[in-house]
Amino acid sequence: MRYIMLINHGDSPTPADPERWATLSAAEQEQIGVDYQALNQTPGVEPGPWMQPPEAATTVRVEDGRTLTTDGPFVETKEALGGFFFFEAEDLDAAIELAARVPAARLGGAIEVRPLKEGW
Amino acid sequence: MVTSAAEAFREDWGRVLAALIGILGDFELAEEAAQEAFATAAERWPREGVPSNPANWLVTTGRNRAIDTLRRRRVLAEKTRLLEAEAEEATEMDEDGTIPDERLELLFTCCHPALSTEAQVALTLRTLGGLETGEIARAFLVAEPTMAQRLVRAKAKIKAAGIPFRVPPDHLLPDRLAAVTATIYLIFNEGYGGRGELAGEAIRLGGALAELMPDEPEAHGLLALMLLLEARRAARFDRDGEIVLLADQDRELYDAAAVASGRAALDRALALRGRGPYVVQAAIGALHADEPRDREQIAALYAELARLTDSPVVELNRAVAIGEAYGPAAGLALVEKIDGLDSYRYLHSARGELLARLGREAEARAAFERALALIDDEAEERLIARKLRAISR
What is the fold of A2-115? Predict the structure, then answer.
């Protein structure tokens, strides 16, 4: 089974928000880096590209043929996608175990584990 | 001894379906195959006699039907080849007379935490209990199409999300077993309020779990708890349909066979050094079936349960037990310390009872009236109304 692992940072501190990031100790900051690196090196994981924070997003709609743009993500900033990666796993249990190792999951964020459709 | 297709249905549905899912790797296909196998049995067994091993016959028939279906549909050509290979293997296995029992795998799949609680309950009743969709819908007071859709969605999620069909490995087992026992106990509680067939179904599922996990004390603890609670069914209401509280129940009305089975299951759990929440609750249930009751021991076990669960509802039960064992003042002191249950009717009714026993009538009346405002069950309303009248006298 192939899954896309969608990272929602939620309230978790990230380097994109230096003020909140500074609330973590140096050791905690380092551990987060170490954990993400370990994830990327886990067999079956295909890391996704780094994303700029949701504040940098522009949302585009088309109404009556006109292109409308709004500043920010489609959902609330707090609920916006923060990153993603792919995981080739035996089953959902393996994907859940890996998701639990993503630092955002323990820092106030959440990981959405979404199976990919096969054969296209 | 299985003598008819109808009996085989109850006995073997879960086992046959689990085996077919194990072979076919697909819930929907397996369920269709199982239904066809049972339909064929209903037609042929009365004429030709019941085969010596009904479950094997049903699995073999179901598997052959599924292969036919796949061939007919001409879908997934590779899958069919795979099936043929497996079918040959399975035929050999049939000769020594047993199909593997995969009900435990099925139970863990149905109670996977990636499924909603509602879906877990419905799926468990449908697959292992063999209840029809309409029966489950009626038991949970939802429309049949709603329940049908719930089941279809759950099965689709199992397939799409890759929920495994297996007993979880050791490091996941404690959490996942807790999910299975919680689902079975939820089904039991749905039945406890009156829909007795669900309580019976939960006891059957609990019995199967204890049989399939003989070394797991909480499985025996859950079974013991359900049996000991169910044993009180006839004593819980009087002839007029009025609620009889535990302290006032006539122990002669308890189902002696259920009490004995419950105690036996509890003994097994204790022999396995079980100290989990279900074992402790079963032990409390067993003490309540004793005459006279050891109220101090009951209070001590509630303290243990409160420590294990950290639940305010359990703390309330402990306060009531303390009130029984050491007098209403001690019980009331504990009730007053409970946080977060202000909209829980039993907090106010228990408080009213303790206050009434202490002779603090005005406060007792206020507490019972608060309880009355939160109740939407007629028998419970009448019970509290009786308590209020008793104060006025």
Answer: Alpha-Beta Plaits (3.30.70)
